[in-house]
Amino acid sequence: MEVTINNIRKEFERFPALNDVSLKIASGELIALLGPSGSGKTTLLRLIAGLDFPTAGKIFFGDEDASHHSVQERNVGFVFQHYALFRHMTVAENIGFGLKVRPSSSRPPKSEIRRRVSDLLDMVQLGGLEKRYPNQLSGGQRQRVALARAMAIEPRILLLDEPFGALDAKVRKELRRWLREFHDRTGHTTVFVTHDQEEALELADRVVVMSQGKIEQVGSADDVYDRPGSPFVFSFIGESSHLPVEVKEKTVLFQGQPIGISEPVEGGGELFFRPEDVSLVDAQDALFGKVTACRRLAGTRIAEIDIANEGHAPYHVEVEVPLHAPVALGSEVRFRPTRWKVFTNG
Amino acid sequence: MSENASSTISKQPFFRDPADERPLAKTLLILVALAFLAFFLLLPLISVFVEAFREGWGAYYEALVEPDAAAAIRLTLLVAAIAVPLNLVFGLCASWAIAKFEFKGKAFLITLIDLPFSISPVISGLVYVLLFGSGSLLGPLLKSWGIEILFAVPGIVLATVFVTFPFVARELIPLMQDQGSGDEEAALSLGASGWQTFRYVTLPNIKWGLLYGVLLCNARAMGEFGAVSVVSGRIRGLTNTMPLHVEILYNEYNMVAAFAVASLLALLALVTLALKTLLELRFGAGNAGGRH
Question: Contacts of residue A82 in chain B, CB cutoff 8 Å?
Fold first, then answer.
């Protein structure tokens, strides 16, 4: 099911939670809504589900305007952050709930419901746990029961709110891989909300980066990591440092001095670069600063460098330095970004 | 938990739980608490039954089937049978509204629900006298239509409803607030209607709290004295409830009869307590409530 979101605005007591958001989700896509808390990602998910309604704008399911359809009419599978399993029902009753509450004209017979529940349990690899209650399951198992329950109603799209948020790191990783396989097998259009960029980049076909009620960038993992479209995306995804610069005649100047890199744009702006996209150089036209700390990070070594800023607190940047040639604390290093982006002001 | 701690103490006296008292202090505390309970709660309760049976089973039975006593029992049951269901519905609606929605005047509604707890029952009764008495606007009007409120069953029911309405709501509001609306949203997203959501999801989630609230509400409805005594007029055999009847008998020095009826009320309290304990044992303190 293709979902189109047109110029959605959502206000909570006149505070805008979403501001003019538009997004097109292709059929069968696995999309991540990524952003810090308060960015509006969960609000957007709930609007798609019909658990909240937009202040302005429209939501289309295919060609059908679903903006004013209730959550029941939209027929979406929603997996809640804390699963929201019905604690007084067994696993089988939970999964069969959506079928049981159908009007008698479309309700499958009991034997059919039992068969479908058992199929779904097999699909989420929990066969044999029909009679258990939610509090007798582990977090990962509950998550999968919640998913099976959402799938039981044969939803047009699957929506997951922080699906792995409440799980420990190991289970998280396993379930992440499992969800990807599950999606590839079932082919459901799936949207999930996360604040974990690793999760979003690893799992999703496309990542929607959100901040303060707006979409900052939509793109593949490569797009948002390698070609961040805004200062927010650059600093939110991955590690990065930034410095105020000026571009004159295509030469990038920092504190009025050339630093050995060039840009086509002109004027004042902000230079962004990642720690790994930096090389130590011996030239005069380069950035330079004092090493204040050096830490080992998995397969790399990161040096924290303070760049003097007359009369103000020094600029703080992080660069990756070779493992075999550690830089001495307090020593001065010269470096240039090898890949960078200048976002001009205004 | 506590069993574990005490067995650890007996075996390894050097590893006493830092938050645990010394054995002597512990025993003393328990004894004081028990003695206090025995003197102020158990003793009066026993004396009610002792007094009631002073002249044997026969006199006890006679006192209960005597027409005025039987009428009082019937009236009390009738009043409870009307007031409790009313407050059950009201309590559910109010706690639903308060726990699941945001609206203007919510704080005011919560305060209002607590009102009967915070004012003296006698005043609650007097309010109805002011509203429906002969000097009021409503009283004469209703009287001209042949409807008697004061010194009649409707007045007693009104006063009882007023006094007992916080019980169910007070029990359910924190429970429902704690549970949030996640389960309801899940049910709706699975296609359930509003009624199905209530029937299959909300009600099972709150049923023990609800039952507990109803038990307390019922105990109070049957035992209410102050408010009812103001509006009832105490007409023997007509507007006397059990607590009022007990007082009348007592004032007439009819001790055996007074305590016989009182023992029924005490029995009700005991049954309520037993049911409450049973609920808590079976479904955990969290589910059965217990904040009173």
Answer: 182
